[in-house]
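Quick entry, no commentary yet.
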Amino acid sequence: MRDLVEIGMGRTARRSYELDDIDIVPSRRTRSSKEVSTAWQLDAYRFDIPILAHPTDALVSPEFAIELGKRGGLGVINGEGLWGRHADVAAKLAQVAELADSDVDADAPIRLLQELHAAPLQPNLLAAAVAQVRDAGVTTAVRVSPQNARTLTPLLLEAGIDLLVVHGTIISAEHVAHGDGEPLNLKTFISELDVPVVAGGVIDHRTALHLMRTGAAGVIVGYGSTQGATTTSDVLGIGVPMATAIADAAAARRDYLDETGGRYVHVIADGDIDSSGDLAKAIACGADAAMLGAPLAVAEEAPGGGWYWPSAAAHPSLPRGALLPVSFGERPSLDEVLTGPSTDPFGALNLVGGLRRSMAKSGYSDLKEFQKVGLNVRG
């Protein structure tokens, strides 16, 4: 039964929970962390670790996507970002980082990002970025917005992507276009494609179930929120705490599994995951994998120069994100971020190692089993 509270006469609201509000409850059995598997499979593609990189230029360059892919994760290139607009993206990102480092005008980096994203998309540049990742032999994934999915997808398919990610701040099964534009019906759109589609973000059971019914292979839950970086709640007033959002999407997955007689749709958590403990709790709430932004952006391989921002920060009229400093000195390698060794006592490094130990201490050997672990709400 839903926990409803009265917020005023005749108006109720549902009580919901952040990842920080809950804890994992171990079972009676423990096991060695070497006996734990963090592997998962999305359609035909198998991954050794349940980590995707958030599709923002601050994090995913073709080179970063390759490095993460070699380590068993999935880097998602922003198909509407700078890699398809400028030939010298590294230099452009260095300008953004320099402005952010100067701290003279807090809005200057956002204005520069808006200016850089105003440049037209160049199909040859985007195709070259996709080809670079594909030729490295790792799974190739690219993000498009619902507004531009119909236009960009043929180009991406020709370039040879393996996975398409239809991703926006808020997404629905049918995007209504402005004016006389034809709405994007995701069910029709996905049925016509030969590659699996991951869609999101969503934060409630109904929308998650609707997206699953479109034929999506995975549903992204959340808006990539990271403290200091994403301001969806501030700008739009919209938000559901991540523990509740993930659990609701997992319930939608169970309903859809019963409805279809066995079709499983993966739930990917995207937001408020800053440590290995958060990652473990996201899986425990029902996620199959997590899409990480700032926690990966600390790595020296990330192109943001010690800064992180979501792709929505560059929106031309309503930016929903600020630049977040993620490093104040020597940056760790991607290996240290993912698998250690770590000198950080708060779980910011060795994310996968922390997840493995949490699973082992709770007595579970794989991710799907770990979704059944007991949970506690803090008083």
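second:
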Amino acid sequence: MSAFLRKHAWVIGLAVLLAVLLGITKAIQPGFGASGLESLARAALPFAFATAGMAVVVIVGGIDLSVASMMAVCAVTAAVLMERMAGVPALMIVLGVGLAMGLINGALIVLTRVPDIVVTLAMLFVWEGVALLILESPGGNTADWLERATRGFVGIDLLPKPFVIMAICIALVWVPIRRSKLGLSIYAVGSDEMAAFRSGVPVGWTKVAAYGICGLFCAMGGLSLAALTGIGEPVPGPYLMASVAAVVLGGVVLGGGKGGLLGPIIAVFILRIIRTILTLMAVDPNVTTIVEGVIMVGVVMLGTALTLRGRRS
């Protein structure tokens, strides 16, 4: 038990912090209950998928600055397709589009050997342009069943549907991969690329696969955006910095090779509940944005400092 606690101390600490913040929210707003949890889960849903995708590429030792743009492409694609065909085929096409975009990002990084931050920054504008080509302005329509799937509760009033969807989708993708040879390769490449190469790990294919997984999670994020709004929004939302901050706060090392997805997902809820607390305290929305930005920058700077310190030691 003590070994388990030491190994997962950071994640357990995040869970305790989240519980404390929920308690503070309840103290500030006694009426905060099941409906408040459901609203929190809905707000966190697209952030969680963006964070899951970002976590995978950070673990492999990279970063993807185009996550928000890929989500926008998938959101508008879903909104356009669901006006013309049944929801399930459209959903599968959107997942394929997200996977393809991620694979393209990874392939460009591996083949050109240009730093991932440069490639994905360029692809941010490419995918943003693609989203605007599909829909010049917010529009389209999503299937009713997709919208209903992100509202309400499953069974009891303390289990919001968005949380269940988030847990199932992320687990279905990541758990099998984490326990497979690909998962071991992702961690090996992130820990030491040269050592992984000398051990026979296909470094290039592993990186491409990691970015493909990121694109798949971004497709889920785009679908959740379309489900929450009922339309497709071609302009990327504020998911890039938020996902990086949640990844670092969740215990994933920016240099790669360490961390998981549970911590970053808990961190997403921590960042969202902080915004809720500031809103309940009637803090000016502009000040709330400043506070969120300071927290995100502080978390990223701390993570970078810890990474550099680890490399020096």
